[in-house]
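Table S5 (text form). Sequence records supplied for joint modeling of the two-component complex.
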Amino acid sequence: MRAFVFTDKALGRQAGRFVWLSINTEKKENAALLARYPVKVWPSFFVIDPVAEKVIFRYVGGATTPQMLRVLDDGQKAFRGTAGAALAEADRLYADGKYAEAAPAYEKALETIKPEAPSYTRAVESLLFSLSTAGRREDCAAAARDAYPHLKASPSAAGVAGSGLDCALGMKDGDPKKAELVAANAAFAKEVVAGPKTGLAADDVSALYGSLAEERESARDEAGSKKWLEEWAAYLEGEAAKAKTPAERTVFDAHRTSVCIALGQPARVVPALQESEKDFPGDYNPPQRLAIAYGAMKKYDEALAASDRAMALAYGPRKLVVYRTRVDLYAKKGDLAQAKKTLGEMLAYAEGLPKEQVGDRTIAAIRKQLEAAN
Amino acid sequence: MRTTPFRAALAAALVAAPAALGNTPAAAPREVLPFIADDYPKALAAARASGKPIFFEAWAPW
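The corresponding structure-token record, covering 436 residues in total, follows.
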């Protein structure tokens, strides 16, 4: 988003519509604000009424520039109270984080919103997220299946197909409707990845490959899953090669690391991560990912050296992930004393974080693991 | 928008996956919108003075 969308000159004309605020949720000084405006998904975007200090519109996840322009339009309508009544009610519930109640409200709103209407795609996306979050996976998968034909030529095609496929895969095994919903949404996902991807959000497309690999894995088709992982890696490497700046390139690092490791080819991503570490010497992410990649290669000393560099740069709740990686590296290396010592440091660090940034369950889980190591 | 985290491959790789691919690290390219960084009171005062709503972006450097 920050590399591709908020740098797009097409958004510059929107500057006068809002007061723009960006909050790094990892920073300690923002913890109190997160108690007022909780964030569960990254990135999240809120429109806030400055008088009532209340979220009046919410959008979660990545977006392309056209999708973001739609979000801005709908957010301003919510502020002015000019949205349609049914959609406004659904958006209000969604803004409050009441997803179980928002889902039927969006279903009702969509009864009167035609597919060609400007708000249709966002209403569908919000419905799918509400249904998924509320645990209504069958309804989510069915809603995606029904909406996709209307959206297949839009920037939302990848997100809708992917959400539908994930929901279908999340249905209980043995559910008589699961196979049909998986097949329908997988067919849409395949259509998206086989077609022109111009205008689609790269993260939506990337996630689709992951879902298609998972679909084959769930069918116990190892070769089929590997094929999708290979295509996924090739897609990410192709997108990274097209990047105009190091910042655009490095956003693909996380998924590239994951998919290369899943393929059993961690060395494949190491040069890209080394390049990112060189380009962004203040960022903990490249050495953290190198630590994971070297660990997968069983090069534990190099992995721990990379982890040292990541630890020196990391801050906030994500530093727990750096600690977690170190614990795993020491354990795999067979140095259980160091693994236990690092676990203790991790617990102390977690206990020192503001409560808005780390849950009691996270701290309890670390403590339990440490007790088990004693 | 895609918000359902994909699971198996990523979990196996120990890499936590946010909704989006990743974010821009240090030395970010120049944004075209006048974002106020990490200063809610300043944004609130500006919004109240101008009568405009706040557009709030919650992000994390991963």
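Note: The two ends of chain B are 18 Å apart (CA to CA).
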